[in-house]
Design a protein that fits this description.
- It is a single chain.
- The chain has 173 residues and is mostly helical.
- The chain has a domain at 49-165: Flavocytochrome C3, Chain A (Flavocytochrome C3, Chain A, domain 2, Orthogonal Bundle), CATH 1.10.1130.10.
- The protein has helices at 2-22, 88-93, 95-101, 164-167; strands at 112-113, 118-119.
- A two-stranded antiparallel sheet has the order 1-2.
- The protein binds heme C (2 copies).
- One heme C is lined by residues 55-58, 60, 70, 72-74, 76, 79-80, 88-89, 91-93, 101-104, 131-132, 135.
Length: 173
């Protein structure tokens, strides 16, 4: 009886690998945009527009989850590229200036050297200098895959402010 079952299983595996090997996927079936992978000439970008409200006049975007980097709600035309000499973002989001102009100030995590466990009193942690590496504007486009994720916030305040530095070691102590 055992022999019959194993012969049966081997035949089944053999057949399925034969069938799989036979079904070749075309390269246009692999990605979400259904375009050839090696040639972008015929790819048509969706017609999308980033938020156009200028800084101070835009509506903040809901945070994706607690301590997620907030999206940039305002137009950043003319503020990039961020260079060693010029970081326009700091001009408004530095803690000393931000509150007075209605911008969210940098959180404590951005003025802390995590590697050497030291608070930074002048400027910002080097790892946080290139803001658009983590914070990006949002365009209103139709998602290709529906997202059913619903965030849970521990309290109302965390929907609008972050506190990563305070909770970073939570669970490791
Ligand atoms: C002229 C001042 C100004 C400049 C320059 C500026 N911002 Fe802002 N930023 C604001 C204000 C004010 C808000 C609050 C929303 C509003 O009123 O438009 C804001 C909101 C944000 C938010 C959302 C904060 C939240 O609580 O949801 C992020 C993220 C942000 N800005 C990132 C940036 C980045 C990155 C740059 C540089 C590319 C930048 N900002 C440049 C003034 C500025
Ligand atoms: C390496 C990724 C990274 C970089 C670079 C970065 N941020 Fe953030 N930012 C985050 C994350 C993650 C959070 C939310 C968690 C936290 O740190 O408190 C955040 C939060 C913020 C907030 C919300 C603060 C609050 O109290 O809710 C502002 C404003 C902000 N960042 C602005 C900036 C600006 C301006 C720069 C550039 C000078 C910058 N960030 C660079 C990852 C980054």
């Amino acid at each position: 009886m055992k022999k019959i079952i194993s012969v049966g299983l081997i035949t089944l595996f053999g057949m399925s690998s034969y069938l799989l090997a036979d079904k070749k996927l075309d390269e246009t079936e692999l990605g979400l945009r259904k375009a050839p992978l090696n040639d972008e000439n015929k790819v048509q970008l969706q017609n999308f527009i980033f938020g156009t409200g200028s800084a101070g006049e835009s509506q903040k975007i809901e945070r994706a989850y607690e301590n997620a980097p907030p999206m940039i709600p305002h137009d950043i035309e003319g503020m990039t590229p961020i260079t060693q000499e010029d970081n326009a973002c700091l001009g408004c989001h530095s803690p000393k200036i931000a509150e007075s102009i209605g911008a969210t100030p940098l959180p404590k995590s951005h003025t802390y050297d995590l590697r050497n466990h030291k608070e930074i009193t002048e400027g910002i942690a080097e790892q946080r200098y290139n803001c658009t590496q983590c914070h990006v504007p949002q365009a209103q486009t139709k998602p290709l895959v529906e997202n059913n994720f619903k965030p849970d916030f521990r309290d109302e305040d965390k929907k609008h402010r972050s506190n990563l530095l305070d909770v970073i070691n939570q669970g490791v102590q």
